[in-house]
Amino acid sequence: MAAAAAGRAWDPTISLRLGHPALVLLERCHGAGPFRAILAHLLRLGLAFDTFPMSRLLHFATAVSSPRLTREADLLFRHFTPRPNLYIYNLMLSAAAAAGDSPRRAAALYRSMLASSVHPDERTFLALLRSVERLSAGRQAHARVVTSGFHSRAYLRNSLIKMYLDAGAVETAELMFRSTPVQDTVSFNIMLSGYVNEGCTSKALQFFREAASRGVAVDQYTAVALLTCCGRLKNAVLGRSVHGVVVRRIDPGDWGLILMNALLDMYAKCGEMDAATRVFGEADEKDGISWNSMVTGFVNAGKLDLACKYFFEAPSRDLVSWNALLAGFARYKDLSAVIKLFDDMLASRVNPDKVTAVTLISAAASNGSLNHGRSIHGWVVKGFGLKDAFLASALVDMYCKCGNVKGGYSVFEKALDRDVTLWTAMISGLAFNGDGTEALDLYRKMQAEVVTPNGVTLLAVLSACSHAGLLDEGCRIFDAMKQRYSIEPGIEHFGCMVDLLARSGRLTEALALARRMPMRPSRSIWGSILNASLACQNTEVAEIASKELLHLDPAEEGGYVLLSNLYAAGGHWNHSDKVRQNMERKGVKKSAGASNFGS
């Protein structure tokens, strides 16, 4: 048969009907081995060089074979396809987009296509848009769509909207959506999902309200996006409302596993584990995501017994479920349970990842267990090396919390990639252990290496200045936050600065800063002023701080006792009695062992 085929001229009419025996075999082919045998046969027959047989070979390699035979497809296209047509170009563009190849590869294919006078169609641009990584490349693709006359195609317009949303250009996506002649459920869901993925939860909910008022239908994709919003907001009331919409508007037969998992995830994130358990029990189909949602939900709710129950009842356990349970035991500082579970994980041949590593390191840090920490450090270096700055940061934090600053500094110096997180961890560790001057020296070294600090870094440096009494340096850093780094100070930064001023005896300035803060001062801020004023025997400032503390927590008896004693120490017996009477009138009882009122 092969000899007969080789002896006759190629007939495109027959070939297009897939009548050639080799092409029939190709259409029935399964696996890379048979494909390579058929390819060799077609090459021997000289048929592979014709456009149609080559298109079938490329179709199998890029769209049918699992895994995809990307390397073979690329070789065939570059060396054995002298006259690729539109179909072949589209196959290669789609393969490049699906494989996540460099956008330059897709751009090069598109330029080759134009140079060969092959005109693009809608499929060409859909593949091109899927390969976009940078917004500038996306805008160029959009311009090509317009100049080619395809901008009115609904599917292509929806793809453009999605591309802009994925690139973070929300305003451009909104502009395109508003200018769309017909806004259907698909375009609506793309916008809604885009808002959710960009973290614009409030905007997503407002968009849904507006669309619902125009009568846009709700399907399972709409519901999944809305449930994701509710989970992120931890708004159980809103989540139940969406659940009600799902029940009323979507036929139970159309729910699907994705929607069921979205419901589970929403209730779990909102801490509504009773509702999550009901949804889980009513589900006809469950997968690993369903079981993991239950395990994670009970871990976050602090119910480790129920988390373990679902973990061990699950048909299979993946890395996510192991990590979730490990994090639960680590959160409650049960290091022995963490170590045992980790050993079970390795025995089950589940490969740990960096999340596992950070959980183990954090567990050792929380328990102050240096020996376990060193063992985990050895495993981390063996499994992940010294390149990862995030793991190095966790190790630095662990050593410093265990009181071994030297060990933390050794990790810091050996790290190959020192990002702002790693610098911050080391500075925080030094400050935590009272090495304020060394922390400040390291901060200066960080600046010399042109690493820009973030808010957490500056908080660590201010804390170091406060503990070391470095007032002038602390003031300079606090002023530089907004002026140099455009970082708005938070309540923690103000707290450090107030504490620094108060410790330095600048009580008037500390009081003034507390009063002009853009947010309400916390108990710890007024506590810093009070402690410093008592140390300086400044009863005037101490009285102000005590009153502020009482205002924040009227039911706290310590504040009344302290204020009464302040008045008594200054000989203001009438004021002392009034404070005691006020305490009794509000029903605040003095605990046994508390200081007596002055008399």
Automatic annotation (TrEMBL):
Q: Which UniProt keywords apply?
A: Repeat, Transit peptide
Mind telling me which PROSITE patterns this protein's record contains? PPR
Q: Which Pfam families match?
A: E_motif, PPR, PPR_2
Q: Where are the PPR repeats?
A: 85-120, 184-218, 318-352, 419-453
Q: What is the recorded name of this protein?
A: Pentatricopeptide repeat-containing protein
- Native species of this protein? Urochloa decumbens
